[in-house]
Write a structure and sequence with these properties.
The chain is an all-alpha fold and 164 residues long. It is built from six helices and no strands. The chain has helices spanning 2-25, 29-68, 73-96, 106-134, 143-148, 150-162.
Length: 164
């Protein structure tokens, strides 16, 4: 019985290995998908660089205003986010997502960007409320999810909805 399966396997494996190679040789389909993936990778890299700089500026400014100036953490996040949302729109539209999607209907893209950032702001405010106000933690605790959670949300919405 085992010998039979081994012999059958000799005939099946070469065909199984050839199929992906034949699909890869087809013009257009694979090249187009590969090109889209490469473009998305570069967008992700650019978004990461711009977003990382903005995220650290937001997180650091939030902490500085809340801790050093002794302003309520919720108010601090509101002030800081209002300032960096405008900067973020300019940088993300010109750097992170340049060449992606249509560039007409600027008013629609602008509104969508501010809605997306509003969701990012709401998630950051939730982290501040939960970790500082509700749990009584130090003002630096929300910096961790602000850096690691909110960017995932905003990248996804920016790529698919705002600049898509």
């Amino acid at each position: 019985m085992c010998l039979k399966w081994w012999i059958v396997g000799l005939h099946v494996w070469p065909r199984a290995l050839k199929a992906p190679l034949e699909r890869a040789r087809r013009p257009g389909v694979t090249a187009q998908k590969t090109n889209e993936k490469v473009q998305m990778l570069w967008q992700l890299i650019r978004f990461g660089i711009v977003g990382l700089a903005l995220t650290f500026c937001v997180a650091g400014s939030y902490w500085a205003v809340a801790d050093l100036l002794h302003i309520d953490p919720m108010v601090s996040m509101t002030l800081v986010y209002a300032i960096f949302t405008g900067i973020g729109f300019v940088l993300h539209s010109r750097v992170s997502f340049r060449g992606h999607g249509a560039r007409d209907r600027v008013h629609v893209r602008t509104v969508r960007f501010f809605v997306t950032n509003g969701l990012g702001f709401a998630s950051n405010q939730f982290f501040v409320w939960l970790l500082v106000k509700y749990l009584g933690g130090p003002t630096w605790w929300p910096v961790i999810p602000i850096i690691f959670v909110t960017p995932i949300l905003t990248f996804t919405l920016n790529r698919r909805w705002v600049f898509g």
